[in-house]
Write a structure and sequence with these properties.
It is elongated, with a radius of gyration of 24 Å. It is α+β, with helices and mostly antiparallel strands. The protein has helices at residues 3-6, 20-30, 49-54, 65-74, 77-80, 94-104, 124-134, 155-165, 192-201; strands at residues 14-15, 34-39, 42-48, 88-89, 108-113, 117-123, 141-148, 170-177, 181-187, 205-212. The protein is built from nine helices and ten strands. The protein has a four-stranded antiparallel beta sheet, covered by helices on one side. Strands 1-2-3 form a three-stranded mixed beta sheet. The protein has a three-stranded mixed beta sheet with strand order 4-5-6.
Length: 215
């Protein structure tokens, strides 16, 4: 899966001269936490709630709310925005986006192409949505987890052949390699008992199996 498949394309942006008070109003109105700063269709910076917070006088100061509001209304996005923004291309893999977010301890990546043309934005929430989709959480079917010995070869081919011969469609499949190898597979069926019995008869170690009905 690529970034383009899950990024937000309906963007709310601001210009460098936008006052921070107006930026905060936009975030509240659209229930978002960051605003790309653009010049035409080019991204030149990023303003987030965290950046605004770091540039707002603490409530422990002697300033009252009226004075804070006055300062925010005099401060523009250009005064506080992050200019060295980490970005990603729309054709990049979602895994690359996730690694970049984790490595740089950030929760958002503006998506650009060409001369920093802003075409989207992808967040941690979008990555989580993709993870849920790829595992078929919202799709009814039988979900099973199979433990695979390190020295057993050709398991994926064997399993796919098994379901093909049984005329059962595979909906999702993933392989996890940590302490040991696990195959997580979801198929279009509700025959939990039959599938487990037949797989175990062929020597597979089925750790768990269940029917998911999300209708």
């Amino acid at each position: 899966m690529d970034v383009n498949s899950y990024m937000s394309k309906d963007l709310v942006t601001i210009e460098a001269g936008t006052k921070i008070l107006d930026a905060l109003d936009l975030m509240k109105k659209h229930n978002i936490h960051r605003l790309p700063v653009v010049e035409g269709d080019r991204m030149i910076g990023l303003v987030t709630e965290g950046i605004i917070s770091r540039n707002t006088p603490s409530t422990m100061t002697s300033l009252d709310m009226r004075e804070v509001t006055y300062l925010l209304n005099r401060t523009s996005a250009n005064d506080i925005m992050e200019k060295n923004v980490i970005t990603i291309h729309k054709d990049a893999l979602l895994e690359e986006a996730a690694v970049n977010m984790r490595k740089n301890a950030i929760g958002v990546l503006p998506v650009v192409e060409g001369d920093n043309k802003l075409v989207g934005i992808i967040t941690e929430k979008d990555i989580m949505d993709a993870f849920v989709d790829v595992l078929g959480f919202y799709t009814p079917g039988v979900r099973l987890v199979i433990n695979v010995p390190e020295d057993r070869k050709g398991v994926l081919e064997e399993i796919t052949d098994f379901f093909a011969e049984a005329e059962i469609s595979i909906q999702q499949i993933a392989v996890y390699r940590k302490d040991h190898i696990q195959i997580v597979i979801q198929v279009d069926s509700d025959d939990v008992t039959g599938i487990q019995k037949n797989l175990e008869a062929q020597g597979y170690n089925v750790e768990s199996i269940m029917y998911k009905d999300n209708q």
